[in-house]
Description:
Elements: H1 22-38, H2 42-59, H3 63-68, H4 74-86, E1 92-96, E2 99-102, H5 103-128, H6 132-143, H7 153-183, H8 193-199, H9 201-224, H10 243-264, H11 266-275
Antiparallel strand pairs: 1-2
Helix pairs in contact: 1-5, 1-6, 2-5, 2-10, 4-5, 6-7, 7-9
Amino acid sequence: MIRDITIGQYYPGDSWVHRLDPRLKIVAALVFIVTLFVIRDFIGYAMAALALAVTIAISRVPLGFMLRGLKAIFVIIVFTFTLNMFMTDGETLFDIGPLTVTREGLYNALFMGTRLVLLIMGSSLLTLTTKPIRLTDGMESLMKPFGALGLPSHELAMMMTIALRFIPTLLEETDKIMKAQSARGADFESGSVIRRARNLVPILVPLFISAFRIAQELAMAMEARCYRGGEGRTRLHELRFRARDAAAAALGALFIALVALERVFADTIYGFLHII
């Protein structure tokens, strides 16, 4: 389960998506997330899923690798689905004991579940196709205009990138600790949910110690390389907005325009489908 988390990982490749400007990918990811909350029907989600599927195909990141990342949030997806299905009033479809499933509840459950899946996959694609150092440079460049307000853009970008970069590292440490404790007789899989949660408590102490050790080693490595922040820092590869980035931005603008048109004419489209 721990190895199934893909957020924060980088999948090596040389696809068109990998070579895009990191600033464009960061903005595109944010716009995609906002769009998911603006969409109000399944036609819009079908368009978003199609755009995401095309992007994944171009990036050459295996679909199975991305779907594996959904296993880690399977419980959250099921909880969201169940909560919406049973807690929404409307036309009754059938009863499951004391619980009632309504047409509106089933619709909301499918709607929210689809949104959550697309949200996780879209967010994961950003880190899977962008190297940590380029992600840092992209964040810093985007936040640089806020420097006039006293915002330390370089430091914030560095902290955010380090946090994303060390998610896989901490997950790997957690996996090692769990295997070591399992070899000593610890049981993390049997018993009730509460008992399994209690069995996870002893993992936290060595995990925190390991996290502080990794942080100290990182700080010493940065000091040994004379790291002094972003002041006067130069880069081996400067960020440049190229023709392929402009083409990708145009495709993104087309996607947003189509979603906006679908939202405006949603009632007309559903009326036409109802007639058919």
